[in-house]
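Entry for adenosine-5'-triphosphate complex. Fields follow.
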Amino acid sequence: MSKRKPPVSKPASALLPLIGLADRPILTRLFVTGCTAAAANLISLMSLSAELSGWMRGEVLDTPFLIFCLSLLVGYAFSKRFVGLLLTTAFSALAEVRRRFLRHVTLGSHAEILDLQAKRSFDLGNYHLERIAALLPNLSIAANMMLVAGVAYLYLWTLSTVGATLLLVAAVFVGSWYVREAQRTRALLGDAKDRELRMLQGFSELVGGNAEIKLGKARRDELTQAVEADIAGWEELKRRHGRNLGELFSWIATIIIGFSAVFVFIFPRMGAMSVAELPLVTSVILFLARPLSKFLNAVPDYVAAEDAAGQLATLLATMPAAEYAPSRHARAPRRFSSIELRGVRFTYPAGLRPEPFTIGPVDLTIPAGSVVGIMGSNGSGKSTLLRVIPLLFRPEEGHVLLDGQAVETDRLESYRDLFCAVFQDHHIFTRLPQGTSFDEELFREMLAYLKIDRLVPETGDGLLNRDLSKGQRRRLALAIAVAEGRPVIILDEWTSDQDAEFRTRFTNEIIGKLQSLGRTVIFVSHDGDVSSVCDVTIRMINGRMSLPAETAAPRPDTTPSTARPAVLEMECPQETA
Ligand SMILES: Nc1ncnc2c1ncn2[C@@H]1O[C@H](COP(=O)(O)OP(=O)(O)OP(=O)(O)O)[C@@H](O)[C@H]1O
């Protein structure tokens, strides 16, 4: 018998916990501040009413004006405090959500972050967060108004029980209808958002494939029509949303004015109120109308903010969890002898392809200072292996050992710090690394060695010229990687965009230079047989690794023996606090 899942209880509000308002002490403070502001406002109102009644009786009162001024000041001060407290609490909580995003990006699993879905999650998360932030000022004013209306309502109760009861009944009926309508109107915005996302996707296809669409009319027409349809759909939904909102707001204004008329025209005629009470009740009703309409106008905003908060909470729940707790004291080992992979397997789940793809089992020893070359046909798993070795992709089976000791989660951070890489999709940051471990002199030397020193001048403000050709960018990435001073350099098809000179220099010279700088080099290449420059050559065949017999043994001249691995005296970058 299948076990029944316990029903998942949906929280009453996704917004309040997200903006830090699920906390009882904060809520109490807010409530007390808000009620004080509301009570002071009410006292201002009562002093106005007392003055009005006095004038009607032909008396001039002394005290109301003083009370009015004092209560007005107190009301102003506490309203300001209420709105300020609510907004500062909410914005701090939202900043904390942004910090969570940051932790997810920097500490979440690399495999998950590479997933396109993850990028979309961060974009969408920031979008929802920004929407909530934009709605908050309105909502906090409305919350203040709600308290003002609540206190004024209690006062109305003392003046006219019938009127107050009638108002309550009307508020329940009109309120529930109004919230339902606001939710329906909000749903239009959700549909519009879907259209917008599709439209943005279309735009990015048009920009990314701009050369292709300029050359091919059929493809251009097809994409243009799809984007145009999304723009039209988005426009229609937004217009309907605007119309509905307009209708809702005018209904509310009409209902409030109509309700005031019942008090002024009907109640006195029915004998439910004396003429003497009329100015008092009327002034309370008029007083109530403003906060009520402010509050009601904010209902659609609240519904929208709840919706955004719900979506944000769902996204946060699916974002990649931190792989480890970052340590201030974690340091890459200053020296190492070998890196070993023992029975390592890594699998990409099926996703869009019919079958999952697995590399492994991989058994490999990389002595410090050696050169490891990886060859194999397209899609055989070379780049994947390059990300498994530094444990960017964490294997589901087997172990990676540093100096014979398995690298577990607690050493992951310092282990990864041994490596720098120029992957196929490498990224060059706008500025050079700032830490002391970055060797500026070596960087300049490498730029000259790679013949791009004139293209990457010293700018003084630290900004790098990244407007280079593909091959030149790869050379720049290599110069940075070398100057970063880490013991192991990973290069994924570095020569793929290089000219004939640099393709030749790579195998004849560059690898040797890296080795002479004390680096261990692990590289992928399609450039024929590179085994002559390698201590270890690997061939990947459909995810499986083979070590050709003639290259399995390390070269006697340059490679430290695996039995007595070389110990490199490397200054590794220290983690900055
Ligand atoms: N993110 C991913 N999710 C699922 N499968 C993937 C992913 N990335 C790569 N693959 C699959 O894994 C296999 C190995 O990919 P990999 O990039 O390691 O190959 P490669 O040997 O480096 O190829 P190339 O020489 O073309 O660069 C490919 O068949 C590819 O379809």
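NOTE: Residues 83 and 140 are 6 Å apart (CA to CA).
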